[in-house]
Amino acid sequence: MMDPSLRLSVSKVKCYDSCHKKFKYTYILKTPRKEWDFYVFGKLLHKALEEFHFAYLNGSKEPFNKTMPEAFKIAKFEQQDKLKPEMAKECFQILLQYLKIVSLNKNHLLSRPIKAVEQNFELPLNDQITLVGAIDRTQIDPDQVLHVADYKTSKNKKFLENDPFQLMTYAMVLMMQDPTLQMVRASYILLRHNFEPITWTFNRDEIMKIKDKYLDYANKIINEVEYEANPSKMCRFCDFIDQCEQGQRIIGNFNGEVNW
């Protein structure tokens, strides 16, 4: 049984929900994780966009076409030991397209005034449970609704279209920080799909129910003792497939390589 004092996050809850055994490897045993190519690619793009917007939030007057290459350079340096040339090339092309949008299309979602990027939070849910994480970007829409957005590098968007949990979590965080906030708009921004957004608008009544979900997950995690595996075809993407016999059986002779 875990200590009753617990720090939760979206990724931690999703990990527990998908496979209790994977949760044990990740958060209890702290087994070293694989560095999949798609993780590296995601980190590269997120860091470049973060540095780009940080520059202007900090008062930069440099033109976009000078700031973005510098941001890309910083991101590449962080991933230099893991970065493949084809990853860098695709990332650069995505960032060029991003620049075209924010420079030429003032009505686009990406061109709206940004309040914050990579906004860290530590939100107590009760005396023992704290919710932690970071929000990629928050901005103000033309109708003055606060809009929270999360960048996604997924090739297949179908897994996101019916899963607003992460965005609802961020909306809850913002509403708990600001009791006057009654509505939040939230989007996944699909970086590999021409920046297509998947958008929801949430009101306070529906959002505050998410807190109870986190408290329920916390109770289950604190009282967990078995940590049973939940093998599925998704095991091929697991960081711990080499250690998990149940996962290996379900995916057969999968060799551990995944196209990023």
Q: What's the topology here?
A:
Layout: E1 6-8, H1 10-18, H2 20-28, H3 37-57, H4 64-78, H5 85-104, E2 114-124, E3 129-140, E4 146-152, H6 158-161, H7 165-177, E5 183-190, E6 196-203, H8 204-207, H9 209-222, H10 245-251
Parallel strand pairs: 1-3, 4-5
Antiparallel strand pairs: 2-3, 3-4, 5-6
Helix pairs in contact: 1-2, 3-4, 3-5, 4-5
Please characterize this protein's 3D structure.
This protein is an alpha/beta fold and 260 residues long. It has a single domain, classed as Alpha-Beta Complex (Lambda Exonuclease, Chain A), CATH 3.90.320.10. It is 45% helix and 19% strand. The protein contains ten helices and six strands, in the order βαααααβββααββααα. The chain has helices spanning 10-18, 20-28, 37-57, 64-78, 85-104, 158-161, 165-177, 204-207, 209-222, 245-251, and strands at 6-8, 114-124, 129-140, 146-152, 183-190, 196-203. Strands 1, 2, 3, 4, 5 and 6 form a six-stranded mixed sheet that branches. Helix 4 packs antiparallel against helix 5 (85-104). The relative contact order is 0.17.
Short recap of the structure:
The chain is an alpha/beta fold. The chain has ten helices and six strands. A hairpin with a 5-residue loop joins strand 3 (129-140) and strand 4 (146-152).
